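TA notes. Do not distribute before section.
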Amino acid sequence: MCDPDKMKPEPIPGLPDDLPEGERVLWQGAPDWKSLAVHVFHIRFVALYFAVLMTWEASATLSGGGGAGLAASTASLQALTGAAAIALLCLFAWLIARSTVYTITSGRVVIRAGVALPKAVNIPFAIIGSAALNVRASGHGDIPLQLSGPDRAAYLSLWPHVRPWRLNNAQPMLRGVPDAAKAAEVLGAALAEKAGQSPVRVARTASARPAARPRRQPMPDRAAAANS
């Protein structure tokens, strides 16, 4: 089902086993590490936090009678600490992106991930109750999958390839995918074909401004996932 499988040597990159007869790979991709750094590890907020902390400590030093040199030294120490924290988060995002492969076949979605302990999560189309497309202005985006029936995914075992804050009903998610609209179009057509329906093209949705909140586009031929 969707339980992680221990990885064996991959017969096809990103897949734990050879494909069954009649099944074919339709699309493969990986998350962009910069998107993970910004939207998973929130490095912008980390940078803002250290900037505020640096300013506060420098102001406190000056108001306490310390000289400009001491204030500058204190601020520099906080800046270095913040830079180190952001660098570590970016490194972790890069490692996650480098070790992840998303695969859409004619019958399932496979998430192969794991920096230290690689695992593969097979998600058959039969248990995908709905899907959604969340595209940002850059074209990168997320494709969360809501599971139906008794099958449930474990949030922690899937993180960060899971929709945020859906702890009790975890939704596996293709995260930070470049050209997410193309991947969603392939998935939508495959789901439609599996269900015996006519494929519907998924229109790309992007915010008009980079700072605008991304819009969520329901995937065709399946019920739309709940709003964030």
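Switch to the second chain here.
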Amino acid sequence: MHRTDKARTGGRQADEHLMEDSEAVNLAADWSDISQGLRKDLGHQLHSQWIKPIQLGALNRETGALDLYLPTEFSANWVRDRFHDRLQLAWSIARSEVRKVNIVVHPGRRQLPDLRLDDGRRPANDGASAIALAAGAMGDANFTSSVGLDPSLTFAAFVTGEANILACNAAQRMAALEQPQFSPLYLKAATGQGKTHLLHAIGHAYLQTHPRARIFYCSAERFMVEFVQALKSSQTIEFKARLRSFDLLLVDDIQFIIGKASAQEELLYTIDALLAEGKRLVFAADRAPQALDGVEPRLLSRLSMGLVADIQPADIELRKKILVSKLTRFAPLNVPEDVVDFLARTITRNIRELVGGLNKLIAYAQLTGQDVSLQLAEEQLTDILSANRRRITIDEIQRTVCQFYRIDRSEMSSKRRARAVVRPRQVAMYLSKVLTPRSYPEIGRKFGGRDHSTVIHAVRLIEDLRQRDADMDGDVRSLLRQLES
């Protein structure tokens, strides 16, 4: 073979390896998302026992078949029997090219026999202790009311602020002993803002006030999977009877029921049946009912007939409160106030990322024996910070403040000393220091070439006024929300 031919062959092989590596990375990312969804749906114990051990195999582009590996024949059979349709649906939603999911034993593992003890118990090699719980979760006759509820997601652990107080109060009312004035409750929030936390909290609180209650918590995806399974096995009557026997129905991510006509119809009938009996229903989604495209009008009307409670993105004050509440778990570890301020100011997309960033920072500090510091946070959270960082400029701050106080933009640089001009200018200097990485001298130059000491005075003055003057604190909060949205 000529040297040029060898070079072309080597180049093609290198390209093929790069494509394979890229494909593996993309599959792993999709599996991470699917696995997290199943963890939320099934609960920590079931997920750890059966889903977490799954390893990704290769995707056959020609057949659309994806192999999922488990370590033993027993675990492969168990997952195949109970979760195959759910995994198939999740993968088909995540990647259209996946048309078939094969759940098999890892080819590099020894296939252990289904060992049975003398007393007829399940195989010891696959963690038989979880089988009773799993059967309770998936079986029709033994559905356990508390399955799927995360014990850490309670009202006591939910930090409130202006952004979520309405939704939290409505959720507590839904779980109270007395009958709520509204049903269903519809929680609307973007990803990671706390709607799933409130769903779990409602379930826990309702069980405290109604110890013998039957609760069904699931995602819309799980609802569809179980409904399809019931259709395939000709058990729709049993499915409907079981579903309508619950006292509290909690359905998360209702937006994923879009376009599923048969599942929508069954959910509609279930809502009508439960409401007629005075049962309680709570739904959560990332958009308002009217924004659910592909949902029939009758179902939209049921979803919005109660109370639609909107959870707004957390402002900087609420983000600080959440971080401080989480820090109690790590006492007596010292996390400086400037680190808390930095995280609350820069990780703004959602609460889940904010808490994840704090956990990652503290874990790294503990594992390496370093002190938690602002420098360590900037070094170790680069991925999270870059994903969240929206560059707010001093020009943008000045423009927003001038619109808020209804003054001309030129007053930010003018020499006028009238109170109606000076105070907005000081607020803009304060926000420039809080929301941008600019130094005091740099900020001063943007405000008509003022000295850095003038900026320092303005920042300290507004900080002090926020503590003493409720109107000033309200103005700053409102401006922060506008600039960070």
